[in-house]
Specification:
Layout (H helix, E strand, L loop, with lengths): L1 H30 L6 H28 L7 H7 L4 H18 L20
Helix pairs in contact: 1-2, 2-3
GO cellular component, one term: FANCM-MHF complex
InterPro entries: CENP-S/Mhf1 (IPR029003), Histone-fold (IPR009072)
Family: Belongs to the TAF9 family. CENP-S/MHF1 subfamily.
């Protein structure tokens, strides 16, 4: 029984991954000399799902190694270290997001840097 539940959850998790491939391949095959078979789409879905699982696991390990419980952009950039093109693309996007967020932030002191009170004389 638990096996059937796990299999159903497994299939449910993959459905959103497969849908773009199904939609895209149907449109692309009209203009190309190939057809994406259901077996190909299934294999591609499995590949993408495995990559997502591996990436999520690596991100979790990176954050834990840094002593954090939350995954940050630093962890994502560390994940891209072996793919220079992806690292450059994500770095540019991160810079753009930080620049767009800059005007919205108020200037505050970093946490834990309250000015020390002067001793009374």
């Amino acid at each position: 029984m638990a096996s059937n539940n796990q299999q159903a959850e497994h299939e449910e998790a993959r459905r959103p991954i497969a849908q773009p491939f199904v939609d895209s391949s149907a449109l692309d095959s009209l203009d190309a000399d190939f057809n994406a078979t259901p077996q190909f789409i299934g294999a591609l879905t499995e590949l993408v799902y495995a990559q997502i699982q591996n990436s999520a696991h690596d991100l979790d390990l990176f954050s834990k190694h840094a002593g954090r419980n939350v995954i940050t952009t630093d962890d994502v950039m560390l994940l891209t270290r072996r793919n220079e093109a992806l690292e450059a693309l994500l770095g540019q996007e991160l810079d753009r997001m930080r620049a767009a967020d800059e005007p919205n932030k108020k200037r505050t002191r970093p946490a834990g840097t309250m000015p020390k009170a002067k001793p009374k004389q």
